[in-house]
Amino acid sequence: MSASNYFRLSALPLNVKCRVAKFGAVPDEEIRRLRDLGLYRGSVASIIASVEEGPLLVAVGDARIAINREIAAEIKVLQTS
């Protein structure tokens, strides 16, 4: 699968399901935090709230996770059907 198929998590519209494909330039401690909260490679997520210049609220299973926009821009996802 080519990189052109990936989207930035931060670029997805609200309530569109995606599957996490890879983490770009995300610090290891942040990857550990996200993994502990249920967001890891292969997990299905969707953005449920977005405030301009603020963090994104992401749904992952039953969890809701706030993710900094700069971090979300480094998370590459594939849109699911």
Automatic annotation (TrEMBL):
<dbReference type="InterPro" id="IPR007167">
    <property type="entry name" value="Fe-transptr_FeoA-like"/>
</dbReference>
<dbReference type="GO" id="GO:0046914">
    <property type="term" value="F:transition metal ion binding"/>
</dbReference>
<keyword id="KW-0408">Iron</keyword>
<dbReference type="InterPro" id="IPR038157">
    <property type="entry name" value="FeoA_core_dom"/>
</dbReference>
<dbReference type="InterPro" id="IPR008988">
    <property type="entry name" value="Transcriptional_repressor_C"/>
</dbReference>
<feature type="domain" description="Ferrous iron transporter FeoA-like">
    <location>
        <begin position="7"/>
        <end position="79"/>
    </location>
</feature>
<protein>
    <submittedName>
        <fullName>Ferrous iron transport protein A</fullName>
    </submittedName>
</protein>
<dbReference type="Pfam" id="PF04023">
    <property type="entry name" value="FeoA"/>
</dbReference>
